Amino acid sequence: MRKQTKIWTTKDGRKIRICDMTDEHLLNTIKLLRRAKEKVVLEGYKTLCFLRGEQATFDLECELYHLEVGDIDVFHPLGEALLQEVHRRGLRV
Q1: Which residues of the chain have pLDDT under 70?
Q2: 8, 29 contact by CB (below 8 A)
Q3: Hey, where are the domains in the chain?
Q4: What is the DSSP string of 13-27?
Q5: Neighbouring residues of 91: CB distance < 8 A, sequence distance ≥ 6
Q6: Cβ–Cβ < 8 Å for 18, 85
Q7: What is the structure's pLDDT at 93?
Q8: Distances (CA, A) of 4 to 18, 57, 63, 77, 81
Q9: Would you give the end-to-end CA distance of the chain in angstroms?
Q10: Biggest distance spanned by C-alpha atoms of the chain
Q11: 9 by DSSP, 3-state: which?
């Protein structure tokens, strides 16, 4: 019996279990999510200049810092499962 894992949806809409992804697909997915995370953080910092209140600015800065120092596990709901699969396979990202 195969281990059940979370399901990843490919860009063409196919559903695939994370454990069934090829090594290349898995690594490329992580790279994609890391680039997306960087873009979100950059856009978030650009947004800071539009905020007026100190608390709003502080809250956004805290969230952006949390995203910036974290990996994709804090950015995407399947990030932790993807990183665990990489670790299970002994791959390097």
Answers
A1: 1-4
A2: yes
A3: 7-89
A4: S-EEEGGGS-HHHHH
A5: 23, 26, 27
A6: yes
A7: 85
A8: 9, 42, 32, 17, 11
A9: 29
A10: 56
A11: strand
| pTM passes above 0.70 | yes
Q: Of 38, 37, 39, 59, give the one whose Cα is nearest residue 48.
A: 59
Q: Is 49 exposed, middle or buried (0-12, 13-18, 19+ CB in 10 A)?
A: exposed
Both structure tokens of 17: 């279990």
Q: Which CB contacts under 8 angstroms, 24+ apart, belong to 28-35? A: 29/82, 30/72, 30/82, 30/83, 30/86, 30/93, 31/93, 33/72, 33/75, 33/76, 33/79, 33/82, 34/71, 34/72
Residues written for the chain: 93
